[in-house]
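Beta-glucosidase: structure tokens wanted.
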Amino acid sequence: MDDDYRGSGLTFPDGFLFGSATASYQIEGAATEDGRGASIWDTFSRQPGAVLHGHTGDVACDHYHRLDDDLDLMKSLGLQAYRFSIAWPRIQADGTGPANPKGVAFYNRLVDGLLARGITPIATLYHWDLPQALEDQGGWTARDTALRFGDYAHHMGEALGDRVAVWTTLNEPWCSAYLGYGAGVHAPGVTDRLATLRAVHHLNLAHGLGIQALRASVTKPDVQYSATLNPQVARGVDDTSAEAIRRIDALGNRAFTGPMLRGEYPADLLADTASITDWSFVEPGDLEQIHQPLDVLGVNYYSTMRVRLWNGVGERSSADGHGESRGTAWPGAAEEIEFLPTDGPHTDMGWNIDPAAFEDLLVELHESYGLPLMITENGAAFPDVADESERVRDADRIDYLRQHLTAVHRAMGRGADIVGYQVWSLMDNYEWAYGYTKRFGIVRVNYETLERTPKDSAHWYAQLIRERAIPA
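Answer:
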């Protein structure tokens, strides 16, 4: 077997959906137009020091005004699917009340434009841009936010539910809860361990209520329902690592898969966090509400961690891949676990490249939950340099994609039911707390002119889609 994961000529079945993914706040811009309200990222990005260089998503890639051109670009690359997210504050400025007709009209144009070009629409209801008005009332620490999410999901099911093929409730609720309310490096920038765990539960509840609201309002007969998780993949270094990995798995993974897919919070998670909360915010009936049948599980994967229990000697390493922070993304485990630097190579995010771990993860998810899997995000940031003609010769990104698509192919060979792959990202965009300093796109965006130019990786990916095989 080719151990470097650089396969070529590996073929994918006809039904496998190749596409690309984006998120509303990262590309849309038009932050105050047509009735859109403020989101927590509009607020957070204006806090001094929260985002590199004070960058905001006010303009981003100006996708809102360049929709038709971007749709034509997708078609030119041969994308079979496009995973986008809906900006909740564009639909309900304050997170409540009737749907904003102008906001709905934009997503109607998007979905109709995709279908007219033969591209399957995959819609994500929540990719981190919570209406600020709801955050002012507690955000994801408040139970009411989950109820409001159910109403919002119903509005979108009514508006787009005759055409969208796949509905995803939440994107990476781990980031929303642990980075937003624990580490404080994402919006809303809170550093509170109890708030983190309350947010975990209310995000789970929102998912369950959202699925039920969609099922009540969607009319398309062959629709699929999903959630997208970013499994935390930890690897060990010594004989204490097994316990460290168990704790990471409980907090980072089973805190979501437990209630969503099995209808329970794991006993070890409750024990690990008992010093923070008794979980009394989980009310009777909540787990039944959360545990809704799903058709597909979305998987976002980028990198791994190296962990062990800390021996208490010297300075504890905290290289978990999410940068320096005032708080912790690991409530109940932060003082006991050491995150060691990973072996290279690394992307521009400082994230290690480990396609073997990706293969193993996909097989483990298949064996644990038995759901069809869709890769909803996978890609890499590199310090791309454009030549005089704006061409980007991003051989490092092509190599990354080759390795990870080889991993997907191998996982399928081991029995994993994988139905599609959405590369992150269609275009360079606003990379959250890193602003515009990290480029993930297969299409270059010139942030001065907003001109789009497909990189070499885009042409490579287009060839892969045409031939349904990893190019030589």
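The mean pLDDT is 97. The CA atoms of residues 51 and 433 lie 4 Å apart.

Cheers.
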